[in-house]
Amino acid sequence: xKRRTLTGYLLSEILPPLLLGLLTFTFxxxxxxxxxxxxxxxxxxxxxxxxGRLLTLILPTFLELTLPMAFLLAILLGLGRLSxxxxxxxxxxxxxxxxxxxxxLTFVAASVALITLLLTTWVRPAAxxxxxxxxxxxxxxxxxxxxxxxxxxxxxxxxxxxxxxxRPPGNxxxxxxxxxxxxxxxxxxxxxxxxxxxxxxxxxxxxLRLFDGSIYERDRTRSGFSQTNFNIYDFKLDLDExxxxxxxxxxxxxxxxxxxxxxxxDEKQAAGMVATPELMEFHQRIAFSFAPIVFCLLGxxxxxxxxxxxxNRSWGVALCIVWLVIYYALLxxxxxLGERGxxxxxxxxxxxxxVVGVISTHLFRKALYESPLLLQARFDAASLWLGxxxxxxxxR
Length: 396
Prior knowledge:
- There is one protein chain.
- 65% of the residues lie in helices and 16% in strands.
- The chain is of the alpha+beta class and 396 residues long.
- The chain has a six-stranded antiparallel sheet.
- A hairpin with a 4-residue loop joins strand 4 and strand 5.
- It is elongated and about 90 Å long.
- The two termini are 42 Å apart.
């Protein structure tokens, strides 16, 4: 079989399950976010077009996770079908070595790794910054328009705002009553004759500058109020709180571009400061983009190993789930050790790639020499049992 024909045949086997797996994994992870976005439409009256933009900006965060996952599933399903139909055995009999099967898939893995690298280093950070700005614009627009006259507005948690009159163009209010219960030990009742509504983009806050009013403070452990009069009083509101469960606050390093992240690391190290969060984020972006290459070697090795039972689709799905759980468990362990300082960030974030890569190399050597694994029969039986449970679940 010519190399070009073999490459085309292998690609035709893995590309359909790759697309299907990408859609499936992304949809599963997006379900919770979609429900929260629907809540925005129902409870906040956000237009559908704005919700669509939010969903588009959320998508890159999930694609960087689901693309490597889908690639592993594609290899296990594609080569698993060839193994189940004895086509891999026929290829070996015709002189095709495991290396000849691995090589074309490695080029596909490199392409998937490059896309993942672009997602982790450029697309996802830019999308998260744009997402915060979009959420801020929605909150800013909605809160100004939501302050209705002669109505108690409870859009902010633990805050009740009453406005007697709003004057055009909508940033001047008269007769303001604010009941603030954000502090656990006390309640504040704020009265103001006139108020100016202003938004501060840098801090993502909404400011109500009140004139000629009073603050009545009540300690919850005692009876009675203490009164304070003021000429000018600034009342701050966090616009992220307005978005409720749909807000997406992320740590600073996650939103930094790659150049800014490297610059921050250099500045902190030059100043003698600890740059662990930034180093963790940098190495996570780079290390995770190599996951498709590790998954490629793993998937090919598992598919080429001598089997005691015939592989099928459920076997491939079960095996994919098992190894994804192992990989992400190692990733979580590495991140936890890195954040505590037990591991250097390089070792912490490359830990799952190294472990799974070493295991995959060992499995590929076994496949290369057609040497079965110890306890292979039990392993196949366990995979078959899990696959049968998945099949029953699909048929319900």
